[in-house]
Amino acid sequence: MAHVLLIEDDVSVRDGMELVLRRHGYEVATAATGEAALALLAGPEGTGVELAVLDLMLPGMDGFEVCRRLRASGATLPVIMLTARGDDGDIVQGLEAGADDYVVKPVTAPVLEARIRAALRRAEPTAAARGEHHADLVIDRAGLTISKRGTAIALPPTELRLLLELSAAPARVFSREQLLQSVWEHGFLGDSRLVDAAVGRLRAKIEDVAARPRYIQTVRGFGYRFGPV
């Protein structure tokens, strides 16, 4: 039974989502503010939380700052953000802050539950045979660890899956649609901004200079490929 943290200030929305998730077998903790969510995650109750559903428009500390603080603390649990319909600015800012996925409010129960299941699958260990050396980057597929010049790099599940997918076939060009299907399991209904934002976050962590990527290269008009060059 997965343990989900629901961070939502609207009581009716929070109660409705909690009821749906519990009916699907999830253990659910709730928080009405970002401050309360961070305190919960830092305490004993937070050790079992496997995923957070985070509303962006919270009183006090907003969802963007909550997500940034989570990632700055080294937390790698998947974060699904809730955003207002059609607000592209919120979507982009939330993804850049470290969210793994987003759903638009109002969200139906099947869509939310499907996104949660997909995010939890991405966080599961991936079977693999061996570690790999790519210039200064070492990818241990069996241990699911990444290091660069001997220093460990902590990656949230989506970014780790993305790196594993790209590095499994060096020099192969992956379209955004292919990556949405294999990493996010969204198929053609997904949003390419998920891919672009995750690539940006991944580059910031594994590249010496993110603006001049060595490992995750853009192939204009097609997608991305793994170097290194």
Keyword list:
alpha/beta, Rossmann fold, Arc Repressor Mutant, subunit A, five-stranded parallel sheet, four-stranded antiparallel sheet, 8 helices, 40% helix
Describe the structure.
The protein is of the alpha/beta class. It has 2 domains: 3-123, Response regulator (Rossmann fold, 3-Layer(aba) Sandwich); 131-226, Winged helix-like DNA-binding domain superfamily/Winged helix DNA-binding domain (Arc Repressor Mutant, subunit A). The chain is built from 8 helices and 12 strands. It has helices at 11-23, 34-42, 63-72, 88-97, 109-123, 157-167, 176-184, 192-206, and strands at 3-7, 27-31, 51-55, 79-84, 101-105, 131-134, 137-140, 145-148, 151-153, 174-175, 216-219, 223-226. The strands form 3 sheets. It has a 5-stranded parallel sheet, with helices on both faces. It is globular, with a radius of gyration of 17 Å. The termini are far apart. The mean pLDDT is 89.
Provide the fold topology.
Layout: E1 3-7, H1 11-23, E2 27-31, H2 34-42, E3 51-55, H3 63-72, E4 79-84, H4 88-97, E5 101-105, H5 109-123, E6 131-134, E7 137-140, E8 145-148, E9 151-153, H6 157-167, E10 174-175, H7 176-184, H8 192-206, E11 216-219, E12 223-226
Parallel strand pairs: 1-2, 1-3, 3-4, 4-5
Antiparallel strand pairs: 6-7, 7-8, 8-9, 10-12, 11-12
Helix pairs in contact: 2-3, 6-7, 6-8, 7-8
